[in-house]
Amino acid sequence: MKWLVALALLASCKKQADAPPAPAPLPVMAAAEAKRGQDACKAYVDKVCACAETVAAMKQPCGLARALPEAIDVGLSVAGNPESTRRDVLQANDSVRKVVKECIEETAKLSGAGCP
Question: pTM of this prediction?
Answer without folding.
Answer: 0.76
